[in-house]
Amino acid sequence: MADLSEDSTIEWEAAQWVACRMGGEAFDEAGFDAWLAGDARRKPLFDTMWRRVMGADMDVALGAYRQRRRARHVALASAAGLLLACTGGYAAWPSVELFLAQPRHYASAEGGIREVVLEDGTRLTLAGGADIRVRYTGYDRVVELTQGTVFADVAHDARRPFRIDAGKARITDLGTRFEVSSNPVAVRVTVESGAVRLGANSWFGDRMDLSADQVAILTGSELSRIANVGAGGVARWRHEWVEYRDVPLSQVVYDLEGVSPLRIRIADEKLANRRVSGRVRLTDPVRQIDNLSVIHDFTITRHDGAIFLSSGKP
Questions:
Q1: Cβ(98)–Cβ(137) under 8 Å?
Q2: How far is Cα 207 from Cα 43, in angstroms, rounded to an integer?
Q3: Among 28, 140, 187, 192, which has the minimal tally of Cβ within 10 Å of its Cβ?
């Protein structure tokens, strides 16, 4: 039988450190640091696995182990020893069960809204071309948001944490209703009630707890708070059409950005404070911005993955 390659040994070890991190046992910080220091390839591999948690990298590592589990090689013995030492043998089972769970796929059409009720009663509202994959086990409830926007009304289950992974962000529910908006540049989280924990989907990222009406954005590895929303200001797009009466343009733009494929930025404060009235379809942000530019005499430019609004015509 073929020996474990050096690469597959590192993959297996990285997978075990991921399992250690998720297993609920005391984590061996010194041992982990020593493992990272032993090979420059380990940290980026671990970080990639941790971001994906149970994605393709873990599949390769576990597959390599299953195919060679009868081999009596020092590399495999070392990896198995690591598993037993840090997880007590079976503590990694929740991670493995999550990996093996068959995901359920849901999506919303561009410009449309879709309601999804999950098996535990959790309600998800999708918009902005949202695409999600849902995996439930006896230990975890995980939603992967690959694009678009989702509003989650989470059913409480103390035994099974609920989280949403969106790009480089991880949002852990602490019993709440909240919105997650993901575009290629940033992830925005807004809490309607209860609390969530937002952080980088990585072992090495910061985390921030948010409560009702609070908003935060993760851009790359930078986590920052922005101004709170007012009462009724979370995920207004759920109503599709909203009637505005003498509100600042910045409020309408904030609501449109929730389902926009690109960030929307207002260049100056005077334009941001321009008063707006009328009926706006929030699920069609790009066209609505075009319409508003004609009515309120501002210029639209697109660059660096964002839409910029500035006073006057070009």
A1: yes
A2: 20
A3: 28
CA-based torsion, 49, 55, 60, 62: positive or negative = positive
| Residue whose tokens read 């909203």 | 242
Encode pLDDT of 117-174 as tens digits: 999 999 999 999 999 999 998 888 999 999 999 999 999 888 889 999 998 899 998 8
Q: What is the phi/psi pair of residue 57, to 5°?
A: -60, -40
* Phi, psi angle pair for 167, to nearest 5°: 60, -125
| pTM given for the model | 0.70
Structural domains of the chain, with CATH: 6-99 (no CATH), 101-226 (2.60.120.1440), 240-311 (3.55.50.30)
Q: What average pLDDT score do residues 291-310 get?
A: 91
Q: Which helix (H) or strand (E) holds 180?
A: strand 177-182
